[in-house]
Amino acid sequence: MVPSKQIRVLLLNDMEKLERTLFRLEQGYELQFRLGPTLQGKAVKVHTNYPAPGEQFNRHTFQTLEWFNPTGREDDSDKFCKLELQIAGSFQYYFGYGKEVKSGGGYIVVDPVLRVGTDNHVLPLDCINLQTYLSKCLGPLNEWLNRLQVAKESGYNMIHFTPLQTLGLSRSCYSLADQLELNPDFSGPGKKYTWTDVGKLVEKLKKEWNMICITDVVYNHTAANSKWIQEHPECGYNLVNSPHLKPAWILDRAICHLTCDVVDGKYKSRGLPALIQNDDHLNALRGILWDDVYPKIKVWEFFQINVEKAVGQFRDLLTAGSKAAKIKNDTKQHLRIIQDPQYRRFGNTVDMNIALETFIPNGNGPSDIDECCNWFRKRLEELNGERFKEIHYHQEQATNCIVGNVVYERIAEHGPKLGPVTMKDPLVTRYFTFNFEEMSLKQEEQLMHQPDKACHFLAHNGWVMGDDPLRNFAEPGSNVYLRRELICWGDSVKLRYGNKPEDCPYLWAHMKKYTEITAKHFSGMRLDNCHSTPLHVAEYMLDTARVLRPDLYVMAELFTGSEDLDNVFVTTLGISSLIRGRLPE
Fold first, then answer.
1. Residue range 542-552: mean pLDDT, rounded
2. Residues 83 and 30 sit within 8 Å (Cβ to Cβ)
3. What is the three-class DSSP state of 349?
C-alpha cells in the first residue's frame, strides 16, 4: 500500500505576523494555506519565495500561489492554496488583500534529509548523536581515522570538526588567519594534503562508517594577523570607514599607556601596584582613571561644539542682516548639536537657520547684536554641558567595566588569575589593533588623522553581555566600545560587511569562497557566534551553501536569552539545531 501524503494546514488570519513563530516541516509534506475567519470573503493573495517547480530558489523572488476549491462552494471554507515541499531551507510567505499588500506573513522551515551508508539510507534528525573533535589536535590527516575510530565504536553518527583552516597567532580554533587554506599542520613530511583529501575522508566516513561530518563557519571575525585583512582593511571597522569609533580608540590607547605606567611602577606610590589583589588597589585604579586618564584625553571634546567659532559665525550673519529662512514644517525646532561625521574635537555644528529663528536681536545696533550673541553663547555652553554629562555617564560605565574585567582576570576565584600586570597580560585587553612603534599618546592621536595609518586601527570582536543580538554593536549609534562593554577577543578583528556585497566586495567574495569550500566537502555547518553575525550575511552565505548542498544541516551557536529572538534566527536561516551553554555559577 502506498503511504498517504502528509498534509499540514497553516491558517491565515488578518494582521497575524508570525515571523518569530517556528513552523518546522519535512520534505514530502504538502503545506496548505487556508483562510481563517478574519479573511473569509476577501480576495486574499498568498505569496512565497519557495520556488515554483523547475525554478531555482531566490530569496527575493516571490510567486503568487493559486487557490483551489475542491468542493466548489461559494464561501471560502474549503478553499486553499498549497506547496509541495521538496527542498530544504527557510522560506518566507506573506499575504494581503485589496490595498493591503502585506497583512500578515511568516516563515516555514523545511528540514534537510541526511543519508549515510552505501545504500544511502536516511539518518533521522532526532537520532543524531554528535561528537566534537578539536581539529588542531588531530595531527596529520592520514592519522585521523585511528583517532576518529573511538567515536564510531562509541555509537556516534555525526562528527563536528572545529575549523580546519589555517589558524591565527593565538592558535584559537575560531580565530582563522586564512579561511580558504587548509591548516598546514594536517600535512606530514613529504605530503601536502588539500581540501580534496579532506573531502575523501568525509565521504569515507559517510559511506563506510555511516557518519555525517559537519564543521564550523566563522563569518563574524578573522584573526588579527590575517594577511588579507591587512591588505584590505576596509573589511574591518577602522577609523576611516567608522570614524564614530575615534573617541573609543583614544580611550583604548590611553588605557594601553596606563598599562605601561603600571608595569613601570609609576602608580605604586598611589596605591596601584602591578600585582592587583584587593579592593584598595581597585579603588586606586578608579581614582587614576578619573583623575589622570579621563581629564587627559578629554573625550567629551569629540561631542562638543567650538563655542567661540560658532558665535563668530552667528555674529557675522546678524551683522550682515541675515534672517531665518522659512521652514515648511510649522513645528518649532530647537537648537541642538549636529555631530561631526568625522568626529573631530570640537568639530560639531548647529543649524544656523534655527539659531537665527531662535535668537533675534532687539535692534540692529552693536549692543543689540552683542546681547543676542551672549544669549546664543549661553545656549551653546548649555548644550556642551549636556554632552559633557552624557560622556561622564559613559565614563562611569567604562570605569565599572574596566574594574570588573580586572576583578575577573586577576582576583576572582573563578577567573584565570593572571597575576601582575605585564605587557603580555595588560591591565585589560585592548579593543583595537595597533601595529606601530611605541610613541606618546599625543603622537598617536595625530595618526588618527592620517587615513593611510588610521585605516589599520581595526576594532576587535567580542561578546556584549545582555545586548540586542539584532543590533550590530560596532555600527554608529552604539557606544559599546566607548563604554568598554565588550568582552573582547584580542586575537580577532570584527568584520564589516555593510548591507550588501557592493558595500565591501572583497569581503563578500572571500567569504563566499569560504562557504563554497565548506559546503562542497561537508554535509553541515555550525554557525559560530551566530547571535552576532548579521542576519543578512548569514542568509546570503547559507543560500550560497544550499546551491551546492541542498540538504545542508545547519547548527548554530545561538545565545540570545530569548526563545522569541532565537526564532528570528532559526526561521530566517533554516537552523536545524542549536548549541546551548551556561555561565559558571
1. 97
2. yes
3. strand
Q: Percentage of residues in the chain with pLDDT exceeding 70? A: 98
* Phi, psi values for residue 366, rounded to 5°: -55, -40
CA distance 152 to 258: 53
The beta-carbon contacts of 125-131 under 8 Å, at least 24 apart in sequence, are 125/553, 125/576, 125/577, 127/157, 128/157, 128/158, 128/212, 128/577, 129/155, 129/156, 129/157, 129/158, 130/156, 130/158, 130/159, 130/160, 131/156, 131/158, 131/159, 131/160
Question: Is 45 strand, coil or helix?
Answer: strand
Nearest to 149 by CA among 214, 204, 198, 215: 204
What confidence tier does 335 reach under pLDDT thresholds 50, 70, 90?
very high
The DSSP annotation for 252-313 comes to HHHHHHHHHHHHTTTTGGGT--SS--SHHHHHHHHHHIIIIIHHHH-GGGGGSB-HHHHHHH
d(CA 484, CA 477): 15
pLDDT in tens, 227-265: 999 999 999 999 999 999 999 999 999 999 999 999 999
What is the Cα–Cα distance from 254 to 230, expressed in whole angstroms? 24
C-alpha span between 128 and 131 (Å, rounded): 10
Amino acid at 410: R
Residue 24 corresponds to which cell in the numbers above? 518546522
Residues 458-500 have pLDDT tens digits of: 999 999 988 888 899 999 999 999 999 999 999 999 999 999 9
With contact defined as beta carbons under 8 Å apart, do 350 and 336 qualify? yes
Q: Please report, as a single letter, which amino acid is at residue 456.
A: H
What would the pLDDT profile of 379-427 be if each residue is shown by its tens digit? 999 999 999 999 999 999 999 999 999 999 999 999 999 999 999 999 9
